[in-house]
Amino acid sequence: MSTSLDAARYFIAAADADEGISHLKLQKLCAYAQGMSLAWLGRPLFNEELEAWPHGPVEPELYQRYKKFGPNPVEGGNMDVAHAREAFDDYHKLVLESVNEYYGRFSAWHLRELSHIDFPAKFGSGLVICKEAMQRAFENNVLVKKLNEAAALPKRPAEKYYSHQEIMRVLDSYLQ
What we know:
Layout: H1 4-14, H2 23-41, E1 51-53, E2 56-58, H3 60-66, H4 81-85, H5 90-103, H6 108-118, H7 131-138, H8 142-151, H9 164-175
Antiparallel strand pairs: 1-2
C-alpha cells in the first residue's frame, strides 16, 4: 500500500512549476485524496491517520517532514509526475489525478475552509479522524457524486465495474 508521503510526492510533482505548493495545501490535497479513496473505492489511499488540527485535517508525519517550509512552496526534489505515480495502482492514480484537477485549483486557505465543512471532525481537538466516518461523509462529496453520476456507477467500489480508462474518460469529460 502507498503511504501519505507517496501521495505528497505526487502532489508536489504535479504542482505548477512556477507557483509550487504550500505545506497547508499539500496537507489538504492529501486529506481530500484519502477521503475520496475511502468513499469511491471503499479503501484508503494510505494507512496513516489524519488528525483534526486547527487548520483542518493533518497527517502528522507529513507535518513533521514539511513544516520547515512554512508558507513557502514545498521543495520535494526533482521527481516528475510519471515517477511519482508509480507508487499507486490505476484506481488510486485516478483518485490523485481527480483531486489534483478539482481541488488543486483552489488556494490553500480556501481548501482549509472547505475541509472544515467536508471532514467529520472537531477541528483543533487533535483527535484522529475516523476513516469510517470520513468514508460516509465523502459519499456525499461533490466530486465522488459527479463521477458516480457521470459513469452511472451502480455501487462502490467503482473498480469492480469500470476499467481505469473508462473512468478516466468520464473524469476528463466532467473536468473540461
